Amino acid sequence: MQKDINSFCESVGQPPDRFRTIQIHPTKKCNLTCLHCYSSSAPGYHDVLDLANLKSFLAYAFDNGFNNISVSGGEPFLYKDLEELLQFSRSIGYQNTLASNGMLLRSERAKRILDFVDLIAISVDGPQPLHDKIRNQAGAFDKMCQGLEVLKDLDKPFGIIHTLTPESWTSLIWLGEFAASNGAKLLQLHPLEMYGRALDTLTSEAIDDDLAHKMFILGHYLVSKYSDQLVVQLDMLHRDYLLAHPQIVSGFERSCGQSGKLADLLDTIVIEESGTILPVSYGFNPRYSIGNISNFSMSAFEDFERQSIPDIKDIFKNTLSRIAEYGTRDIVNWNELLIEESHRSMEVGIEI
Ligand code: SF4
């Protein structure tokens, strides 16, 4: 979510609330097959985004108010054109951020690429036995730690991203210490969501309300404990707080339409590995797609604003109404509910 990168940027001396992000998933190829992978990435994938199409779209989107790219995947360091992509995006004014499993950072190529990276987030699932289990590979923790050493040697600002599971929440105190002692600027705690491979491998690990409360309390303990060392970002909100401050998560609530550009309304758009451009988040209903980078037109954003923004505003509004009606859930993963609502609106035939 946009506020994550804002917190991260603030922690490394960048002004907050200035980023409008394009999340790029250039490939589903990965050196791992993590149990919780929301994109079901794996070593066997070979399709990648076409660099020329990507460059054209990025130039167009920059002129329309987007100014930050966040490259993930799959594992971004397996994207053959990553160096050229980052060189290009920086040359036209984008801030470059990456999310990586941190295992492929020791090569000379990786170090060259890191030269064009402003911020990098590394996934850590817990202490070594748990990390290796979730990453589905013995030795993954040790290789990730070697990657952190590379980042420290290069003095590259980095954060830690952790997926909260019923098995991992008891390691939160360890995780805070791990992040702080390694010099991370950000610790992002994101609850497990039932998408991709998690649907096959972790269905018994769904987070119930009782567990969400425990994570929420521990997460806030870490916020306070490390407030002078790093930003701890918890991707769960208390329902009452969210209802009182919907502008935290909704560009529609925040926007005064200053520039009349799409980036005023949507903090984030996503380019999937197929080239499809989605609003809001990975997993959002493709019915609301902005187009595809292989054939987008120079009026793509204007067409999308006219045709789909009213529907998406309704999805935001409906999500808030559902949260207000929740009798039993106090702790809310806003992003997950929003994606759910984008699909639900079609299932129940809501007039949108
Ligand atoms: S979670 Fe990340 S590192 Fe793991 S398989 Fe998916 S893309 Fe690869």
Automatic annotation (TrEMBL):
Lineage: Bacteria, Pseudomonadati, Bacteroidota, Cytophagia, Cytophagales
Superkingdom, natural source: Bacteria
GO molecular function: catalytic activity; iron-sulfur cluster binding; metal ion binding
Species per Swiss-Prot/TrEMBL record: Dyadobacter pollutisoli
Keyword Magnesium: no
InterPro entries to which the protein is assigned, alphabetical: Aldolase_TIM, Radical_SAM_PqqE_MftC-like, rSAM, rSAM_sf
Listed PANTHER family: PQQA PEPTIDE CYCLASE, RADICAL SAM DOMAIN PROTEIN
Keywords annotated in UniProt: Iron, Iron-sulfur, Metal-binding, S-adenosyl-L-methionine
Protein name: Radical SAM protein
Entry cofactors: [4Fe-4S] cluster
Sequence ranges assigned to domain Radical SAM core in this UniProt record: 14-229
This protein's record includes keyword Chaperone: no
